[in-house]
Amino acid sequence: xxxxxxxxxxxxxxxxxxxxxxxxxxxxxxxxxxxxxxxxxxxxxxxxxxxxxxxxxxxxxxxxxxxxxxxxxxxxxxxxxxxxxxxxxxxxxxxxxxxxxxxxxxxxxxxxxxxxxxxxxxxxxxxxxxxxxxxxxxxxxxxxxxxxxxxxxxxxxxxxxxxxxxxxxxxxxxxxxxxxxxxxxxxxxxxxxxxxxxxxxxxxxxxxxxxxxxxxxxxxxxxxxxxxxxxxxxxxxxxxxxxxxxxxxxxxxxxxxxxxxxxxxxxxxxxxxxxxxxxxxxxxxxxxxxxxxxxxxxxxxxxxxxxxxxxxxxxxxxxxxxxxxxxxxxxxxxxxxxxxxxxxxxxxxxxxxxxxxxxxxxxxxxxxxxxxxxxxxxxxxxxx
Length: 384
Hints:
46% of the residues lie in helices and 12% in strands. The protein has six helices and six strands; from the N terminus they run αβββββααβααα. The longest helix is centred in the last third of the chain and has 85 residues, at 220-304.
């Protein structure tokens, strides 16, 4: 079974309410001629009729796609019973009910189906007793009250009904019949708008029948209270479903609210950090503008001064330091002259003999200048 958990729950609940049903696992012939082993509930259901309770034999087959598809129901008459064909039962005993036609997996179940069967069969019995051709050896059926037979007239005596099984007592704690806010003999409106057929009026028993309203175990008041209780239970279940759904939605909304609150805190921290960075940037901009102003003043002040001679830009405090400065400048110039002599040789401006002669002379001069700088630094007491 596709939904074995739901199937097990519905079967267990149905059997607990209706003790006359038994669970069987038997082969079932499908429409295409193939056989498939399916579960069925086989037994009797108590049907109140004219103040008495009769056990109607039924067989309810559960398809392997249950509860997505409605069960297949049959009336299974015994050897001394005959099927009464009506708009709800055909000559093969197959049951046709608007409840089966409007079956929905979420709102329909086995208990509700049997309750509809009980209401329907209480108005139009699906079976009647066969006529007796010989004297029975066992205890005869009671003559009153009886279930009407099709085609019975005043000239022909009615046949006795199928009696209540002697070894089975109908339990008194069956679930209530569905919906009482609709007129008697009418189904409640289907969810999809399928019109419910009206129950045909029950046949009038012969005048010789004794009144059973005073002695019956179920009267109209009991039925009305049962219907009210059924409506109350159904409304309570609907309210419980709505409450559970609303509670789940509320939990989701609360979780979303917590996530939004956390996101708000993170955004507030980011905004606070951005504000601090903005204040720091504004402070740096002010500082840069002050430095720029100072640079502009320094440039304007330097622009007002007279040009400085390069040779007089650097002065020394002692003749020895001046000698070191002059020697250093000449040595640097000699280094540059040697470099450019090499460039001239490479480009072919001078030949090798001229290059060697000039480099020898410049190198000797560079050596003397470095020796002079070294001697002056020693005299001045400078490091190195």
